[in-house]
Amino acid sequence: NVRVFSGMQPTSDALHLGNYLGAMQNWLKLQDMICKENETVQNERDKHSVLFSIVDLHSLTSTKSISPKTLRSNIESVATNYLACGIDPDKVILFNQSMVPAHSELTWIFNCITSIGKLNNMIQFKEKKRSEDNDNISCGLLSYPVLMAADILLYRTTHVPVGEDQRQHLELTRKIAQIFHNQYKTKIFPTPITLNPVHSKKIMSLNDGTCKMSKSDPSEFSRIMLTDTDAQIKSKIKKAKTDTITGISFDPSTRPDVANLLVIASSMSGQPIADIVNEFSNKPTSVFKEFVSDSVISHVSPIREKIDYYKAHPKKVQEVLYKGAEKANIIANGNLKKIKDLVGLYH
Ligand code: TYM
């Protein structure tokens, strides 16, 4: 049976273009593909399922500066963003991670079979560690990838649609499954496959084409949020870093900033990069930038309008989260029982 799982952290109140192009576009494709496949599956038990989560427990590793009230409202806002992008709670299970306690329980079991050495070697941990002093690094930050492995393996997931930057976390997830199988002499978890976007769309910061677009960048101008107004999008792209070379060409290694704008424009407009390069190869950067912002605006503004609609109907969003958690808890608790049996724990 195909089982899809993925999630995003509610560290801010909206998704950015990196989240959208690196993950969300694939989520939408999978949602529709699997829904179609399910139509032909007769037996209820054999129907495939897709789960998309707001991973609030993960965000506790980086929310020291966010108040509990803000975190709570970010969770609802991210759910609102999912719905506005087209995630359909009638087709998939949309839920908030902390409403399914089995995630934390399985994390503890996995914590006890994962070596600190492996976790110390995770690239994202090393990067985050560099920006904190030793006394401030929490166990949670170190164990972050273990929680992610629990998210995935808890549902016996087969496919995980994520951006390029999650590759190492998925490798560790497969390793943890293997260690569990060796220790308890039973194969219970499928090997989860990572699904990256077709052209491996790692979306870069608008201020620096060599760093990824991220929620944690202190500069608002480094990213475009799905909640940005048309004027904000225009001004961010106008200010986006480019280079002094005349004309537009696609060369990620020597012209990373222009290449990033081309990837964005191509994904948003649906036009191949080569066609856009052809059209703008001899034109000034300012004219090209107008095309980039027009393509982003025409794709993002309908999403923003839907976000505004759901923001005005918070009860609808809360209901989706409660119903989603109910369904997720059923699958999660069933699998957790089997896992606890293997480990020798009571349930
Ligand atoms: P998070 O919240 O940082 O990002 C959510 C998704 O967006 C993708 N992404 C990007 N893709 C392309 N370019 C970018 N600049 C960019 N920035 C973010 C990420 O690859 C991700 O797919 N650890 C995960 C959340 C998580 C998870 C999971 C994912 C927790 N448990 C289980 C899958 C399965 C994270 O921090 O994503």
UniProtKB/TrEMBL annotation:
InterPro entries xref list: aa-tRNA-synth_I_CS, aa-tRNA-synth_Ic, Rossmann-like_a/b/a_fold, Trp-tRNA-ligase, Trp-tRNA-ligase_bac-type, Trp-tRNA_synthetase
SUPFAM superfamilies given in the database record: Nucleotidylyl transferase
Subcellular locations according to the entry: Mitochondrion
Any single GO BP term: tryptophanyl-tRNA aminoacylation
CC annotations in GO: mitochondrion
Record key words, sorted: Aminoacyl-tRNA synthetase, ATP-binding, Ligase, Nucleotide-binding, Protein biosynthesis
Pfam families per record: tRNA-synt_1b
Catalytic activity as recorded in UniProt: tRNA(Trp) + L-tryptophan + ATP = L-tryptophyl-tRNA(Trp) + AMP + diphosphate + H(+)
One example GO MF annotation: ATP binding
E.C. no: 6.1.1.2
Family, similarity comment: Belongs to the class-I aminoacyl-tRNA synthetase family.
Name of the protein in its database record: tryptophan--tRNA ligase
Annotated source species: Polysphondylium violaceum
Lineage: Eukaryota, Amoebozoa, Evosea, Eumycetozoa, Dictyostelia
